[in-house]
Amino acid sequence: MKTSDGLSRLRQKLERLRRQNLCLDMSRGKPEERQLDLSAPLLRMMDDGNFLAEGGVDVRNYGAYQGIPEARRLFGELLRLPPSQVLSGGNSSLNLISDALKRCYINGALPGDTPWCKLDQVRFICPAPGYDWHFHILETYHIEMLPVAMDAEGPDMEQVRRLAADPSVKGLICNPMYNNPTGITFSPRVVEDLAAMPTAAADFRLIWDHAYAVHHLYPDRRDQLADIYEACLRHGHADRVLMFASTSKITYAGAGIAALAGSPANIAWAEELIQYQLVCYDKVNQLRHVRFLPDLAAVEAHMKRHAAILRPKFELVLAILEQELGGSGLARWHAPLGGYFICLYTEDGCARRVNQLCQEAGVTLTPAGVCYPYGQDIKDNTIRIAPSYPSLEQLEQAMRILTLALKIVHAERREENGQHKEG
Ligand SMILES: Cc1ncc(COP(=O)(O)O)c(C=O)c1O
Fold first, then answer.
1. CB under 8 Å to 77, separation ≥6 — which residues?
2. To the nearest whole percent, how much of the chain has pLDDT over 70?
3. Mutate to test the pocket of ligand 1, among 97, 212, 244, 246 (most ligand atoms within 8 A of CB)
């Protein structure tokens, strides 16, 4: 059979699906409705009319801009730091990341440090593929992004060490556990190296976005992330790491609570500057959250219920990938044990075209390239799959289309190559 026969059959199949006017969205890692419903009791946590947090603070009023003690304690447990080294903020960890970078930029990383805005050049190491919003934030500060390849253990540490030897390189931004989008967790060796490595900039910062700290898919098979703060402390770099987390994918996405944690010096500096940025964060939301989820054990029990909803979706995506593409050599992927994403690596030069075919057939994927700084997936080989939001039925349809599109793109390339050879 000529390859063109195979290609036209695949195209006909896609055309039939296209005519169904499907509208399937696998573009963003959003919880689905049943997951949001798990937190319904949260909205009733203030019904008893008691608005007092520990220490007698009325959460309906101004005060306690560092967050209520219970919220600082909860995030302290999650991030393995004492509550005094944690600030509980508003509804978004990304907002806290952006503010932390703004303080470095305008005021300096610590008192006495040169504000980055006074330097000719500020650059950041960006393990890629990575989280598009991290890259957007850096771009808004005109910080030059230096992509570093990710492998099965995390960022390529040889590249990281080489870049960190340049004084204009002021930090590295990452999502170290159940990484968005690769799904991998940084290995103990990578965590140790990031803490230990020499950096030319004394005010080098690791922006440690621990967004998926408790987002395991399997109760008894979990990735473990080594303790970055403990490692930094041991290597005499306690101020190096700024840690962030939120309940966006524990309770409500965009209506949860978030936290910043780090060394006493980093937290004292953040407190000093934050107090003039706002009078206080939303403590009503903090209090109802900690009443609903008072400690890490409660969070973990709650996350098992999320996992029960998410697990079949991840397993379905992986089963279809295996069924349609397994052993074909057309793509590779990793089966994550948690988080919100599965990353599909095609042959180089295919991802954009696959994305386009999917879009034409009614499947929205994360736009090609966005998992890389400046939207530049130089190899054009990365597709981020976000299985959480669609129903199982929608997911099945979307994955059949995605794998079909991938086969079409490969057949097109084979045909092109054949023509070149003939020509
Ligand atoms: C790695 C990562 N960090 C942060 C966020 C958003 O967090 P928040 O809602 O707390 O700003 C997301 C959401 O997808 C994410 O994937």
1. 295, 296
2. 98
3. 246
